[in-house]
Amino acid sequence: MSSSDIPLSKYEAAKVVGVRSEMLARGAAPLVPLTDDLKMRGCYHPALIAERELATGAIPFNIIRHSVTGRTVRLQLHREDETSSSGTPPSPSC
Predict the structure, then answer these.
(1) How confident is the model over 36-67, as pLDDT tens digits?
(2) How many Cβ atoms from other residues are within 10 Å of residue 4's Cβ?
(3) How far is the CA of 7 from the CAs of 55, 76, 79, in angstroms?
(4) pLDDT reported for residue 75
(5) Domains in the chain, start-ordered, CATH in brackets?
(6) Which of 4, 25, 51, 63 could form a disulfide with 46 if both were Cys (CB 3.0 to 4.6 A apart)?
(7) Helical ranges in 8-71 per DSSP H
(8) Interval 67-84: pLDDT, tens
(9) What one-character DSSP code corresponds to residue 78?
(10) Phi and psi at residue 66, in whole multiples of 5°?
(11) Extended beta strands in the chain, E state
């Protein structure tokens, strides 16, 4: 079983989306094309962008799981076959 076959827990997914949302809110470039469905109240919403990035495998994060038995599993979120396309950053005034 490869690391890409192991799903993220809801806690890991929430942490990844939260961290990536913070990065986007501070001015990081989005790793997915920005579309109108990523807007909330007329502005691009960092959490919606981060969720899309996670769903498409564009986030270059690694998750390391340590078990009680001493086993360590490293999950790579970034899919190598995906090409990153950066759009315009979200509007900071929103």
Answers:
(1) 888 877 788 999 999 999 999 899 898 999 98
(2) 12
(3) 12, 11, 14
(4) 86
(5) 9-76 (3.90.940.10)
(6) 25
(7) 10-25, 46-56
(8) 899 999 888 887 765 444
(9) S
(10) -115, 130
(11) 39-40, 43-44, 62-66, 72-76
